[in-house]
Structure formats: C-alpha cells, structure tokens
Amino acid sequence: MPSIDESCFGGAVTADADAVYWSTTQAIRAYSKHDGTVRTVVDLGGLANAPPLLAIGGGSIVWFDSLDAAFHAADRSGTTPSLPAALGATTLLRLDALNDPAPFSMLATSDRVYWLTFFGLHRLLTAGGKAHLLASRPQRTGHFFALATDGRNVYFTDGDASADGGSGALTLRSVAQ
What is the CATH code for 13-136? Predict the structure, then answer.
C-alpha cells in the first residue's frame, strides 16, 4: 500500500471494484487495486482540512468540503485541474453556512448524492441543481445516525432519546431512491 507524506487527518476513504480513493489536504487520490499505482484524481491545492466526506457515484467522485460548505463532483477517471481554479466547475451545491447544518454522512449513486444532517435526509443530482429534503425530524430529541443504499432504496437510522435519559429507540427508515 502507498505511503504519501501529506495530512489526511479528518479525511475520508471510499472504494469501488478498481480503486481505493482517499482525501488529504493536498488531493483526492486513487490507489489502483490492479497495478498498485497511485494517481491524483483532484488536486486540492493545499486545503486547511481534508474533505471529510467522499463517495463514488457512476463515473463521478463526490466530496464535501467543510471549508467552503459545498458539495463537489469530478470525473473519477481523469485528473481535475488544480483547485481553487477548478472549484467553480466542480461545485454541485453550496450550503448556507448559517442556516444549513453540515452533513456528517454521504453516499452517491449513479446520478444522485444523498446526505444526512442530524435532522434531515437530502438528495441532489450529481449534475447539480436544487437539493431536495426527503425526510426530516423535530429537533427536540434524537437525530438521524447512518446512511446506506441497496440501489433501490436509501436507508437511514432515526434515533430517539428516551425521556429518562436512557438509550431510547433506534428505527430503520427508508425512502425510494
């Protein structure tokens, strides 16, 4: 396995049949499972923090950058020009940092990106556009926890805190993809 001298603290990792992808403060890189080579998929140009969320969807690699509070996508088979020069071209959606909570879990399908905040499940086309709220919950007790897909549905867990401060209940919910 490769060893590269750059910070990946707080970064993310994901994989497909051909490669393992990871984010650092400098780049999103791919390690080929076939020949062991490492290539730069997206040159991030030295961010303060590595992107914390990374997902593969169709021919795209999608990441969330907490510094600019935005979702980005690039062709995972090529190399995107150095950012921030290419930042505008890769941006799918910029969140309103004051009103939109940051995501903590994300996945991508062939044409969509899904993410969870503590109180909402959201969807966005990988081509960009308007985000859609698919599920929400009151902000009084508990929150959403985990996210997965099987290609037909998106599953997420919804946890409620018990009134007496105990562990409460965890419910598995789903929405059609």
Answer: 2.120.10.30
pLDDT digits (tens, 9 = 90+) for 85-118: 445 568 888 888 767 888 999 999 989 999 998 8
CB 126, CB 141: distance < 8 Å: no
The residues spanned by each domain of the chain are 13-136
Q: What's the predicted TM-score (pTM) here?
A: 0.83
Between the alpha carbon of residue 26 and those of residues 29, 44, 49, 69, 176, the distances in Å are 9, 5, 9, 18, 36
Strand runs (DSSP E) across the chain, as ranges? 13-15, 19-23, 27-32, 38-43, 53-57, 60-65, 70-75, 91-94, 105-108, 112-117, 120-125, 132-136, 143-149, 153-160, 169-176
Burial of 11 (0-12, 13-18, 19+ CB in 10 A): buried
